From TrEMBL:
This is Cytochrome c oxidase assembly protein COX19. It comes from the Eukaryota. GO terms for biological process: mitochondrial respiratory chain complex IV assembly. Belongs to the COX19 family. PROSITE patterns: CHCH. GO terms for cellular component: mitochondrial intermembrane space. The keyword Cytoplasm applies. It is found in: Cytoplasm. InterPro entries: CHCH, COX19, Cys_alpha_HP_mot_SF. It comes from Pleuronectes platessa (European plaice). Residues 1-21 are annotated as: Disordered. Residues 30-64 form the CHCH domain. The keyword Translocase does not apply. Pfam families: CHCH.
Length: 96
């Protein structure tokens, strides 16, 4: 008895995920931010809600160094951290 599997002849074409995959920081441009975030996680028993400022700073560094696509921080879940913050230089550049 043969147990061959028949697959469609249509080739699978992989595509990159919409979010969640980005280049590694080979030059260590954001290493200090990453280290602060990881230390915060360890110190808080990996309760990431206590490390949101460090997470925001790390993601900002990655965006500024073209290590991930630029996204408004509000879309990344940091709206509550921005309400009292002064506008960033990137925001000032985009205003007419």
């Amino acid at each position: 008895m043969s147990t061959a599997m028949n697959f469609s002849s249509k080739a699978f074409k992989p595509r990159a995920p919409d979010k969640g995959s980005f280049p590694l920081d080979h030059l260590g441009e954001c290493k200090d931010f990453k280290d602060k975030f990881m230390k915060c996680l360890r110190d808080s028993s990996f309760d990431n809600s206590r490390c949101r400022l460090q997470s925001k700073d790390y993601l900002q560094c990655r965006m500024e160094n073209q290590l991930m696509a630029k996204e408004p921080l509000e879309r990344l879940g940091f709206k509550d951290l921005l309400e009292d913050a002064p506008p960033s230089p990137a925001d000032a550049d985009s205003k007419p």
